[in-house]
Amino acid sequence: RCSSHLTDGSWLLSLVTVATVALTRWSHRHVLDLAAFSREDFATMLELSARFRAIPMGGQRRIPALQGRLVTTLFFEPSTRTRSSFELAARRLSADVQSFSPASSALSKGESLLDTARTYVAMGSDVLVVRHGCSGVPALLARDLEQVGCKVAVLNGGDGLHSHPSQALLDLFTLARYFNAEAPGLEALQGRRIVIVGDLLHSRVARSNLWALTACGADVVLCGPESLLPQGFEQFVSAPPPGQELDPVAQRGSLRLERDLDRALEGADAVMTLRLQKERMRAHLITSLDAYHRRYGLSHERLQSCGKTVPVLHPGPVNRGVELSGELLDDSRVSLVEEQVRNGIPVRMALLYLMAATEDG
Question: Whole-model pTM?
Fold first, then answer.
């Protein structure tokens, strides 16, 4: 087992030093919503993610940072990227990993979500990564587990229309690396104009990105039809969410709405487009996929409105020819979609480390 771990003493000492400092700054037992993150929290995440990203992790090599810890993925809805990324991140930190599958669980026999979670805690879980189709479930589990004396940490892997913290953090890290690969910190985002286009109404990814990007000083432009982008979104980060008295970020970047995509793209530094779920067609929120692509789809030609070459992000999965043209998606000079997937691993390594490395779990 020891032969599979990284053994470069000086290199590991540098990582341990940074990671130890990061732990002294970290104050979150649970990670449920990025609205609770300060600028220092984002800086810590970016710094530690960059360190983990720099590790040559090919083959079976591991970092013994979470050896003896147990990470459980409780995913109550389907996932490819998020679940696989969390499980790979945990294993690269030498944690043990167990997965939950609703189809083969006692939920079908009437067991509650809380009792399911307590079962995994009783098995020794240190971190529960929870993904659920209903907003607020990870927060409710965290509260209920605390009330019964469980010290397990809960990490929101995506809940309903509410939040997807790790996706927004990897998006933030991807942008920071694009703007400054040598020093992907908060300064790389300060004053950048980031356009988010598409179905913001149903996007937990967009909501988390709004908290993250504005906290780092980016100016965000939201673009989409009124049916998918209500006017109220312009005030999204103007006040803390329910249950939170103060905004931990004293000065955020700006946020504005724009209905015309070409105007929204003027002066943009990066563009993030969101998945348009075809099932929304039944709700008559758009007239047709073709009409949507003509007005809000991205292509090389449409990006000329930016006035310069800018990167394009998408949380995936992508509907080719709807949110993005196939040619744009496959153009690695512009599309950062695969880079987002790669960055998901070091970002989630950083999250798991900060949540599980302390002795009290």
Answer: 0.93
